[in-house]
Amino acid sequence: MLSVKLPRLLRAHQVPKVFHEDSILDGYRHPQSSAFSCILSVFQLTNETLNIWTHFLPTWYFLWKLIAYVYTLDVFTEPYLWPLIVYLVSCCIYPFTSSCAHTFSSMSPRARHICFFFDYGALSLYSLGSAIAYSTYSVPDKLVSSMFHSCYVPIAVCNTVVCTGLSCYSRLGLPFLKYNPEINKRIPEIERPRFSKVLRVLAFAFPYLFDNIPIFYRIFLCSGEGCTNNETNALHYQHIMLAFLTAFLFVTHLPERLAPGCFDYVGHSHQLFHMCAVIGTHFQMEAVIMDMNLRHTWLMSNAPPVTFAWTIGAALVCITLSLLLILIFSLPHFWSPFSSKNDKTT
Fold it and tell me: Does the predicted model carry a pTM greater than 0.90?
């Protein structure tokens, strides 16, 4: 009878520092796991298991939403729907990429860095998808066709590329210059972890805050006519609250920081961070779709026409540049004659 032995789990002191998570003491997978062992660990309770499933399962929900709109609406010939499709695709990509990153990040230190480079790129794409959807459906009437509106998506594209580059830099510093493959230190992630954390928070906080300027203005600052004050605003409120809760969990590492070792498998901040992010995306998606439907007639008459260049084209540019950045940050791992030695360093 065929039997499968689950991989043995390790404690923090048994794995290289690059694998350590703040206040997580147990449940680590072997730092030289095979791809098969990584897949097998998805069905084993480790400190990464819920990180994987809390993003893998929502991927299918978002994919179902995407397929439903593709099959029920004329998305290929109706430009008004293109921003929705770009947004929904980005909603599918970011949790799936995150799930894969958490699954295969224990293959080696090199694989861990590269996995999370892709994770950062996917989050950047989601940021742009949100901006494109907001620009088309959710920007308040007062801002439609304004100078800000015309510059909004181009700036979001730039923010997305900068976000990918800065978040990758926060792990290892400048490629080809700051990587030192002969030692286990990485600049700045291990040598200056707080600096690394601040960089990574800034890399994603700034695009989020910029993307939500139309929403913040619409529900907090705008008064009088042209503020688009409808029932969708309640969903935008919920998304904003969850987004800030997500950031709070990411920055504070609560609750595990209060009781190290007690939340290694269930209940630590990264799991809660994933759950809040996904629920927030759900509310954001419902808000975007509601705005798209409620404001269709007005937007078709008063807003600039939707173009390929600033919807699908912008997303393709973002994907291309982000992949190029990931390649640039990843290449030193493969070119270095010491990379294999470093992967075995504990």
Answer: yes
